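Ticket #4471: structure output looks truncated?

Reporter: J.K.
Steps to reproduce: submitted the chain below (313 residues) through the standard prediction queue, then opened the result file.
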Amino acid sequence: MKTRNFFKATILLLSIAFFASCSNDDGTSYGDEKSKTNFYITDAPTDNTNVKGVIVTVADVKVNGVSIEGFTKTTIDLMQYQNGMTKLLGNLELNTGTYSNITLVLDNQTNASGDAPGSYVLMTNGTVKAIQSSSNEIDINGSFEVLASSENDIVLDFDVRKAIVESGSNDFKFVSASELSNSVRVVNEASAGEIKGTASDTQNTSDRIIVYAYAKGTFNSNTETSAQGSGVMFANAANSASVNKFTGSYELNFLAKGDYELHFVSYTDADNDGKLEFNGILDAESATGVNLNDISIGSSLNVNIAVTLKAKS
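Returned output as attached by the reporter:
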């Protein structure tokens, strides 16, 4: 497991006797064996260079519709946990089996100290902008499996880029409830892998390059490069990461087992307003001949891919 930021206070204290019975109301069967299950949160990058922090206040966490006991309302800056860095949310004993319907309940009004607002965007100039929302709950699509082992690590990947958009005069809002459900992934780290490497922009025409990972065969350049729903581009990407401008390195962490394709996208600040605009999809070629449209990821598998980038002709 990657090094955790344990020096920060744990934001959940969870103690729960989680259904000693072997079945759930939805018919899901659970084993008799219990495993310590740790919950972590991580974040994907935003494409707004004026944003310094995205702070949310979590008021409750539910698994299969049941609130976790002993929870402490907590405020966290999601942007502090990117590129494989995670924050421990808490841990509990769970029976082996598959769990779904994870719900994050936010307090958008007040933070853990009782100050307003509870959820907000911190701009680079120090301005605080409250995040508007019509709902305070995020029902996460997907499920996770608790394996028969001494310990399980479950990662919630909160994609700020998908979840929060600008509204009006540089204000911010959460996207619709259905879009929010797709903005957070859940994966057992034991069943996940990662893709990392370097990307060399030979023409150096980008202010930022973001690499998007899609489930193999799901990328459609016509729809993904257009604003969808609440105005999100590349809305169906499974994961994304910024390419380091100085070293060219990138990391796509906590990818569930499966086959993926990678797409490298150029952004520039053409009008110097601090906001990055889509500049085009770059041609990418693997230095070792890896097919970037067919990359298999398995449990604990780390794939290293160096690519050369250039603008499409």
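Triage note (M.O.): checked the attachment and the full token line is present. The radius of gyration is 20 Å.
Status: closed, working as intended.
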